[in-house]
Write a structure and sequence with these properties.
This protein is mainly beta. It has 6 helices and 24 strands. The protein has a 16-stranded antiparallel sheet, covered by helices on one side.
Length: about 525
């Protein structure tokens, strides 16, 4: 033991003094502006990833402890054997270079080389020069840069201050995050500098692509073939509004054909107000054979489903410009009817739904480069009455809670959880669990169906080493549906699975996802592919 203590004490002293040595070497540079940051030796790990590990950026003043902390953070990534710091200076300030030696298992197998560095990768998201002196100084001007498409009014709506207010660092940081939460920009930077008559605040953004066309072609094991496409136009006219169009044709192996078209438009917040509005129209037509009671084909008919929805929202109490309590009221009109196509088909009566709904929710979710944080929860009530145009009298109740919890092991990993529940009075078999949006791994013929349901979705998203935009997903879905009066929470089914996510930072709210769900009760599994998050 004495020998072990003799060996450990010098080792601990060496580790403790290594960081101090870095700062002592460059102590004279403290307080100088950082004008350039470089990385050498990272043949595989992207510069953008390394920049995110730094607590300072180009444009910040170098503070005591910055370099030692940066070196430790880079080593903590587990990608490098060594990390050294070199500092030089020029007429404008200091240049910091991190010399890195990658671990052997990190080196890229393919020889394509790392992607080019983003021009804003190591820029300071907050310019710390003289911020303390600017605190509580009048704001002289507010500027926006990089928003070639997005209008200034959309960005100003997200600020916690305006010209003439007193400047605070906290409000600048919160305003930067609020702009980031619009999902319209890859990254947002904030800078404050002294002007002639006060503080000038500048927000610089990197815009995403706002038009996404997606053609679709698929064929399942039953021989059904579908094709079509959808197009999403985000940030329409630079006003943070979204237009969608989806068209699909399906030819089934049994001879049925189906066409559908879906149009939608959404305005999350009308500029200058606390109101939002959205709506859409949809038509689905299916050509189906009609059989009599003996199973003989007597004709064909078109089965139509037409629908229209309109909803309006209002912020009730905000903790941030686009966070807090929100109220939503809407109406859904749906008609299912049949029209003869040939022969003498047996047609069913029309079925109509006129649903009036209202909801209250609390939203406090922040968007980060590779993950989300925060939570949202709410309740909703919907009803239909024969006196108001519905075929049935019914009432729906729903609740939800979503949690997005970052965890630090590994870096940028997340626990995303969703709890949902629903209760229906007046209709039968309203809720069906099974599919990419509820219980992954349950096939259509074994989906729980009922008038009451409870559901838990739990995703653990783990970044793939070297590529934080790609993340593994380990998940479980737990839930069931029951008839009214037969609810038994001890009778819960569950599925498990794995998947992968690719957050495409250049596109708005687009994450390619592939999930494979497994149902232990039946031994069945199913794969799902999508272009958006499950929740």
């Amino acid at each position: 033991m004495p020998i072990l203590r003799f060996l450990l004490i010098p080792l601990c002293l060496l580790l403790a003094t290594s960081s101090l040595a870095v700062e002592d070497t460059y102590a004279d540079y403290a307080g100088r502006p950082v004008v350039e940051i470089h990385f050498d030796g990272n043949e595989d790990v992207e510069d953008d990833v390394l920049c995110n590990e730094l607590e300072f950026g180009e444009g910040n003043l170098l503070e005591p402890g910055h370099l030692a902390k940066a070196r430790e953070d880079l080593l903590d990534l587990g990608k490098f054997d060594t990390a050294e710091v070199l500092v030089s200076e020029n007429a404008e300030g200091i240049v910091v270079t991190f010399v890195l030696v990658e671990k052997w298992h990190v080196m890229r197998v393919w020889g394509f080389g790392k992607p080019p560095r983003s021009p804003y990768a190591c820029k300071a998201r907050f310019d710390a020069q003289s911020l303390a002196e600017m605190e509580n100084t009048t704001i002289e001007a507010i500027h926006f840069e990089g928003n070639n498409t997005t209008r200034d009014i959309i960005l100003r709506e997200e600020l916690l201050f305006q010209v003439g207010d007193l400047f605070t660092v906290e409000n600048m940081i919160r305003s930067r995050q609020s702009i980031q939460n619009l999902h319209l920009f890859k990254m947002v930077w904030a800078k404050a500098e002294q002007g002639e008559h006060g503080v000038i605040v500048t927000f610089t953004v990197t815009e995403k692509w706002y038009i996404l066309p997606i053609p679709t072609v698929s064929r399942n094991t039953d021989g059904d073939v579908s094709y079509g496409g959808d197009i999403t136009w985000d940030n329409v006219f630079g006003l943070n509004q979204t237009a969608t169009l989806e068209v699909e044709q399906q030819n089934q192996a049994d001879g049925e054909t189906e066409q559908s078209i879906d149009l939608g438009y959404r305005v999350p917040k009308i500029p200058g107000t606390v109101y939002g509005i959205g709506g859409g129209i949809k038509r689905k037509r299916t050509l189906t054979e009609s059989e009599d009671e003996f199973g003989n084909v007597v004709g064909e008919y078109y089965d139509y489903i037409d629908s229209f929805d309109l909803a309006a929202s209002r912020w009730l109490g905000r903790i941030e410009p686009s966070q807090g309590w929100i109220g939503i009221a809407g109406i859904l009109w749906n008609r299912n009817y049949q029209v003869a196509a040939s022969g003498s088909p047996l047609l069913e009566d029309d079925y109509r739904v006129v649903n009036f709904s209202t909801a209250v929710a609390f939203v406090a979710v922040n968007d980060h480069e590779f993950y989300r944080s925060g939570q949202e929860y709410g309740v909703d009530i919907g009803f239909g009455r024969a006196s108001l145009g519905s075929t049935d009298n019914y009432t729906n109740f729903g609740v939800f809670w979503r949690l997005y919890q970052p965890i630090h092991v590994p870096v940028w990993s997340n626990i995303n959880m969703q709890l949902r529940g629903g209760y229906n009075m007046g209709q039968e078999g309203v809720f069906e669990l099974g599919g990419s949006g509820s219980m992954r791994g349950i096939l259509d013929d074994s989906s729980p169906i009922g008038d009451v349901f409870a559901l838990l979705n739990l995703n653990w998203l783990i970044p793939i080493p070297r590529y934080p935009a790609f993340r593994w997903n380990i998940f479980t879905d737990v839930g069931n549906a029951w008839e009214r009066g037969e609810v038994n929470l001890a009778e819960l089914s569950y599925t498990v699975g794995v998947g992968v996510r690719w957050k495409i930072r250049s596109l708005v709210n687009t994450s390619l996802r592939v999930d494979i769900g497994y149902n232990p009760d039946t031994g069945e599994y199913k794969a799902y592919v999508g272009t958006s998050n499950m929740f």
